[in-house]
């Protein structure tokens, strides 16, 4: 052991108000999304999921900045995430489409509720794996549950006024839900962006870019958010597929695997 290195600080066993208040905000937003979906207000349900993401992004940062990280806070955050990013998107998807897809037969009805349940169980498995393993902080193994929830919520938010989606639209909705669940339990690597320091000075052009980003999102929030989070979700699978394609082409030309790769 290095005698110069300071001893690791044990997590406090106390309960602090501010970070847990933010976690409660995340939990409430997820609960509200479920209630709004049951009432048939899918636009509010989609917005609530994104508000939950804001609270979820703040609670951990506030806890670290104020040195109020606790074992209680970690467990509470995980439970809130399961409600907001596991159950809420699954129930919103179910409420939006299952009653409609049931009109096309029992087989489609089963497909709908199984896709919604698969998403919920995938979120639970994803959170359990995240809590039980020590991972590289720069990357996530599997799509993070907030990002998966954002994909589902943005699509359903965008489709909230789609009164007659028809069978193709309903199939697409449940395929997106199931695909988001699959990516959560996959082994694809996703950047965590935890290396980005919000406290360091930035150039003026960066602030201009952030302002332009808000303006773009404001033009059509559900569509822009779906493009952003959908692109993030698909990035790793597309890179994997491209590398597999290039490797197969090299093998066809007789180039040994690994030769010429960066």
Structure, explained:
There is one protein chain. The protein has 262 residues and is an all-alpha fold. It has a domain at 17-195: CDP-alcohol phosphotransferase transmembrane (TM) domain (Four Helix Bundle (Hemerythrin (Met), subunit A)), CATH 1.20.120. It contains 8 helices and 2 strands. A two-stranded antiparallel sheet has the order 1-2. α1 (17-38) packs antiparallel against α2. The two termini are 37 Å apart. Residues 1-9 have low confidence and may be disordered.
Q: Considering the protein shown, what is the CATH homologous superfamily of the domain at 17-195?
A: CDP-alcohol phosphotransferase transmembrane (TM) domain
The number of distinct β-strands equals 2
- Helical segment tally? 8
Text of the CATH class of the domain at 17-195: Mainly Alpha
Helix coverage percent of residues? over 70%
Q: Residue ranges: pLDDT <50 for 5 or more in a row?
A: 1-9
Question: What is the 3D shape?
Answer: globular
The rounded Rg comes to: 21 Å
Q: Report, as a whole number of angstroms, the end-to-end distance.
A: 37 Å
Mean pLDDT, as a whole number?
85
In percent, how much strand structure appears in the residues?
A: under 5%
Largest sheet: 2 strands, antiparallel
Neighbour order of strands in the largest sheet: 1-2
CATH architecture group name of the domain at 17-195? Up-down Bundle
Find the CATH topology of the domain at 17-195: Four Helix Bundle (Hemerythrin (Met), subunit A)
Instruction: Output the helix-strand order.
Output: HHHHEHHEHH
């Amino acid at each position: 052991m290095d005698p110069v290195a300071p001893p690791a600080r044990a997590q406090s066993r106390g309960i602090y108000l501010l970070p847990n208040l933010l976690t409660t905000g995340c939990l409430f937003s997820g609960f509200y999304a479920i209630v709004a979906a049951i009432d048939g207000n899918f636009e509010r349900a989609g917005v609530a999921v994104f508000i939950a993401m804001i609270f979820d992004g703040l609670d951990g940062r506030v806890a670290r900045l104020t040195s109020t990280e606790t074992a209680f806070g970690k467990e509470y955050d995980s439970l809130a995430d399961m409600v907001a990013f596991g159950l809420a998107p699954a129930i919103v998807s179910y409420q939006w489409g299952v009653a409609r897809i049931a009109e096309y037969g029992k087989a489609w009805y089963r497909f709908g509720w199984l896709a919604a349940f698969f998403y919920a169980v995938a979120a639970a498995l994803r959170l359990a794996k995240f809590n039980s393993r020590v991972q590289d902080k720069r990357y996530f193994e599997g799509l993070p549950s907030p990002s998966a929830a954002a994909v589902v919520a943005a699509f359903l938010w965008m489709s909230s006024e789609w009164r007659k989606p028809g069978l193709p639209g309903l199939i697409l909705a449940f395929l997106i839900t199931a695909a988001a669940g699959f990516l959560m339990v996959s082994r694809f690597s996703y950047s965590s962006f935890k290396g980005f320091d919000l406290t360091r000075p930035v150039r003026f052009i960066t602030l201009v870019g952030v302002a332009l980003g808000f303006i773009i999102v404001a033009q059509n929030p559900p569509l822009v958010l779906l493009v952003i989070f959908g692109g993030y979700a698909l990035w790793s699978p597309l890179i994997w597929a491209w590398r597999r394609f290039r490797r197969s082409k090299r093998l066809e030309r007789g180039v040994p695997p690994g030769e010429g790769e960066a």
